[in-house]
Amino acid sequence: MSEQPYVAQLRDQTEFVAGDGCHLRELLHPERHPVALGYSLAHAYVEAGGRTADHVLEQSEVYYIIAGRGTMVLDGQAHAVEAGSYYYIPPRCSQWLRNDGEQRLEFLCIVEPPWTAAGETITE
User: Fold this and answer.
1) Phi and psi torsions of 108, nearest 5°
2) Domain 16-122: assigned CATH number
3) Residue ranges of the domains in the chain?
4) Which of these, 1, 87, 3, lies nearest to 37 by C-alpha position?
5) Could you report the per-residue pLDDT of 67-109, keeping only the tens digit for each?
6) What is the mean pLDDT of residues 15-19?
7) How far apart are alpha carbons 72 and 33 in whole angstroms?
8) Taking CA 47 as the corner, what is the angle to CA 63 and CA 50, rounded to the nearest 5 degrees?
């Protein structure tokens, strides 16, 4: 039998606070959704004035900023981000994100191979 299409809504996914402190909803994860993917996809946000904890993933990660503006710190180097910004984070790169705006800083996270709790270390 071939794989079937999968259609869902963001609002139907359970929101939780991730280990780094951002609010997150998993959109596609091969262990939790009926998809055969080599990555996981999540929607996340940081409230105005907030930030994530410094953390490291064993997997590579791509962030795509949907709304807001902030500062992404990768291995100690600060980068301004805003809606439309995207960046690649290699495995074992120290990272944290701060919301510098007055609205939510929303972003998509693609983690490859798929995110696992064992692959993430909070460093602060």
Assistant:
1) -105, 145
2) 2.60.120.10
3) 16-122
4) 3
5) 999 999 999 999 999 999 999 999 999 999 999 999 999 999 9
6) 95
7) 29
8) 90
Q: Are 38 and 105 in contact (CB under 8 A)?
A: no
- 117, two tokens: 């709790």
- Pull the structure tokens for residue 100: 């510098």
Q: What is the enclosing helix (H) or strand (E) of 74? A: strand 69-74
* Neighbouring residues of 11: CB distance < 8 A, sequence distance ≥ 6: none
Phi-psi bin for 31: left (phi > 0), alpha (psi -120 to 50), beta?
alpha
For residue 1, pLDDT over 60 is answered with: no
pTM of the model: 0.93
